[in-house]
Amino acid sequence: MSEMWTAKLRNKWQKNLPIEKLLPDEQPAYVASWIYTFGVFTLAALASIIATGVVLAFEGPAWYHVSYIGKFFNSMHFWSVQLFFVFMVIHLWGKFWMAAWRGNRTATWMTGAVAFVASIATAFTGYLVQTNFDSQWISFEAKDGFNSMGVGAWFNVTNLGQMLLLHVAFLPLILGAITVVHVLMVRKRGVVPPIDEVPDSLVEVKS
Amino acid sequence: MTGWFSDFMNHHATYLKWGWLQISVSNLLVILLMLSIFALAIFVPFPSHDDEKKSVHK
Asked: For residue B12, is pLDDT > 70?
C-alpha cells in the first residue's frame, strides 16, 4: 500500500526542516553583527503594521480620522510602514553585498525579492485608501501612469472599493504567505556567512 | 496642527536639481539616513557575551 499524502508531507518536512532548524537556540559566530539584525527588524515592523491595520479595519475611517486614539493608531500604521521599508532596504543592501544567494540559497533570495515587490504594491494601495487629499492626489497621478501602460481597466486606482479590498484582504495575504516561505527558507538553509568569513565550498548547504 | 511644525509642513516640497537628476529634500534625507544606518550596522561592533564578562571582571 502506498504511503498516505499526509505521511509523505510529514516525512519530507522532517527531512528538510527538522524542529531543531526551525527553532534554533544557537547561531554561527558571524551572525553577531548589526547588519544581521535588519531582517528581524523588518519582521517586527511588519507585525506592528498588521496589528495596527487590524485595529483600523475594525474601527473604520470615521474613528481613525476623528478621534485622538484613532489618529494615533492611523499614525502608528503609517510610521510602521516607513520603518518597515527603511529596515527592508537596509536588509536588502546587506544581503546584496554579501551575495546572500550563495550556498544554494537562490530561493531565499528570490522570495525576498518578490516580498519586496509585494510590499510596494501593498504600500501603494495603502496610500490610495487614506481617504484624504493626499490619496486623491496620488490616485489621479497614478491613474495616468496605469492608463499609459494599458492596465487601467483592470487596476483602477481611483476605484476606492477595489483598492481597499486589495489593500486589506488580497495583498496582505500574498505578502504574509511570501514572508512565511522566506523565513522558512532562511531557517532551512541557515543564515548566509559573510563573503570573507568562510570559503564558498564550506558554505554549501545540500538541498 | 499649530505652531512652528505646521508652518514648516505647510508649503510645497523643496526640490534639488542637478541636470537631469531631481529629488525632493525629504526623499534625499531619507536615503542619506538609510545609508548612514547601513554604514553604522557594518562598522559599529555588536555587543557580545565576552564583552559583558570583561566588564564584570573589571
From this structure: yes
Cα gap A200→A30, rounded to integer Å: 15
Contact A86 B46 (CB under 8 A): no
Q: What is the pLDDT of residue A198?
A: 58
**Matching residue, cell 559599529:** B44
Q: Is B38 exposed, middle or buried (0-12, 13-18, 19+ CB in 10 A)?
A: buried
Tell how far CA A12 is from the center of its chain.
26
State what percent of residues in chain A have pLDDT above 90: 76
The CATH number given to whatever domain includes residue A174 is 1.20.810.10
For the segment A106-144, what is each residue's pLDDT rounded down to a tens digit? Answer: 999 999 999 999 999 999 999 999 988 989 999 999 999
Residue type, A157: V
Task: Give the range of the structural domain holding residue A133, as residue numbers without chain letter.
Answer: 35-189
A window 71-90, beta carbon within 8 A of B:
86, 89-90
Dihedral (CA of A174, A43, A168, A83) sign: negative
- Give A176's Cβ-side CA count (13 Å radius): 11
At residue B58, the pLDDT reads 47
Q: Taking a contact as any Cβ pair under 8 Å apart, which residues of chain B between 19 and 58 contact chain A?
A: 30, 33-34, 37-38, 40-42, 44, 46, 48
Provide the number of structural domains found in chain A: 1
Could you tell me if A45 and A83 are in contact, meaning their C-beta atoms sit under 8 angstroms apart? Answer: yes
ipTM over 0.90: no
The answer to whether residue A9 scores a pLDDT higher than 90 is yes
